[in-house]
Amino acid sequence: MASRSDLAKRKKTKVGLENRSGAKAKRKKMPARKPRLQRPAVKISKTVKFLGVRFVGRSITVGKGVRIGEHSVIYDHVVLGDDVVLGRNVRINPNVIIGRGSVIEDNAIIGYQTLTRIWKAGDGMDRTELGEEVLIRPNTVIYTGCKIGSRTKISHNVVIREMTTIGENTSVGCLSKCEGYTTIGSFCSIHALTMISSFMTIEDYVFIGPCCTTINDYRIDYRREFSYAAKGPTIKFGARIGSNATIMPGVVIGREALIGAGSLVTKDVPELKVAYGVPARLVADVKEEERVAFPKQVIAEKL
């Protein structure tokens, strides 16, 4: 049997449901819940392996055999081709396409979007594209708007700023930096600690030794009111730049020319010439045996 205290609680509860006039109190209507926003479906192959990855974006397409490491973040409108590998803590920003078989190692950022004042909103060139079998080593940052060709290798701690185009089969050494708005050709070899200025062109088969510097400004305008049009050097097909060389703004290094180590290049160097010194001076012709050696299939295509 129920105790007196239980009966009193029941009576009190029943009275509480009635108002003073004896009518039953109306329960307040809860506001209708807003429908949840539905994100577009993520297209993921069954062969993808996840290790704690966080998908935060929309319209993500992931191919077959993709492996994604711990704590990686992938934003909107990203396409990962078949057999792509992402290391740990990798960040893929919006509008990035990564081609088949590419490897992005730990802590790399692809499509970085905090840009310089040169960038104009609405340029419509914010897509970042990596070709097939591209290798990006740890801690490298690739800015938005860059296009990197197939089988190109970017080493550790490299910064490639916005609107840079790199061809196929090119390598960029560790701790190098490209200031953006620059074109680098195919089959180039750029060694460690190299500074590639903005608004310059590097053609195919170019070699640049370690610790080289290219400059694009004739005048230092830091905290000054004057302005000028920046123009970087142009390094023609097959040229070779020795270690620790400095190339001044607007200088053209001719086809297959050779610049000695430690040189300061202030004037154009004609094709097939050797120059070195401070400032660099023409000293000899490039020997025939030192011309660019093409693979047989390339020679056949040229003929």
Structure description:
There is one protein chain. With 303 residues, the chain is mainly beta. The chain is built from two helices and 35 strands. The strands form four sheets. It has a 13-stranded mixed sheet, with no helix packed on it. An eleven-stranded parallel sheet has the order 1-4-7-10-13-16-19-22-25-28-31, with no helix packed on it. An eight-stranded parallel sheet has the order 3-6-9-12-15-18-21-24, with no helix packed on it. The model is unreliable at 35-41 (pLDDT under 50).
What's the gist of this structure?
The protein is mainly β. 7% of the residues lie in helices and 27% in strands.
Helix segment count?
2
- How many beta-strand segments? 35
- Report the principal-axis shape: elongated
Q: Strand arrangement, largest sheet?
A: 2-5-8-11-14-17-20-23-26-29-32-34-35
- Strand proportion, as a percent range, falls in 25-35%
What distance lies between the first and last C-alpha atoms, to the nearest angstrom?
108 Å
Structural category: mainly beta
Gyration radius (Cα, Å) is 30 Å
**Mean pLDDT reading:** 84
The low-confidence parts are 35-41
Overall helicity: under 10%
Main β sheet profile: 13 strands, mixed
